Amino acid sequence: MKSCPKVFIVILNYNGKNVIKKCLTSVFKIDYPNFEVVIVDNNSTDGSFEIAKSTFSKASFIKNEENLGFSAGNNRGIRFAIERMADYVLVLNPDTEVEKDFLKKLIDEGEKNSQTGILSPVIFKGETKEVWFSGGTISWLRMKSIHEKDIKKKESYETEFLTGCAMLIKAEVFKKNGLFDENFFLYWEDADFSRRAWKTGFKNVVVSTSWIYHSEESEKNNKNKVYWLVFSGLLFFRKNTPSFLRLWISVFVFLRKIKNKSDILRRKGNQEVSRMVQSAYVDFDKAKDGF
User: How many CA atoms, within 13 angstroms, populate the side-chain half-sphere of residue 242?
Assistant: First the structure.
């Protein structure tokens, strides 16, 4: 245990002009004394990277030549941190604002137990202050991830997965399990990483007194969101489903494909969404040989 472990805060930016200044302003007000900020940019075109670089010179900057997605983009920052002897890496979305003591509370909890591998604050919606995430569970039978909305009356508690919006990860977790799986371009990589950590004996923990706020700006007007939710969800369940449920998952996916085709043929519901779902099924079957 260290009295003040070294933390690298990795913020992955992609066209975050509307949010990046607010995020970094709040981050640099954190009262924890031993942290550095690394901004990784996924080839933004809105000037947000230049704004961050000119305004927050204390940060380190990594510019990707293309949009690498969430996993590969963050992995560049994580490697940078580990090479510089980070004790913890905080993966943080650019559309967040943080309480100044949130990091100290996460570190204090992480240092109590060597088995605690990944920690999360409670995450509130930026505008309404409603709970956005207070823990995560996987519904294996329905192929869904569920964000819990109720804060448990405990200082900290275990949960099945944590969200990539804000994950404080011990360096030992990376050394034992590797980094984010880069087969996940967007979505579900956090659940996959949490599950991999759990399989090797680490706990995923929410700290109820640590708070941040998430505006979800990065997801607005994202036409590809449905596609990646479906594609990455298929990848997650293909990779992580327990053996005794694999037959059910295969049947469930087959039934979903039939419903999707029926919705398109009957012009039922939002046709743009239905065709995005269909594209995800087709591309997944080509790339991953289905289930």
Answer: 7
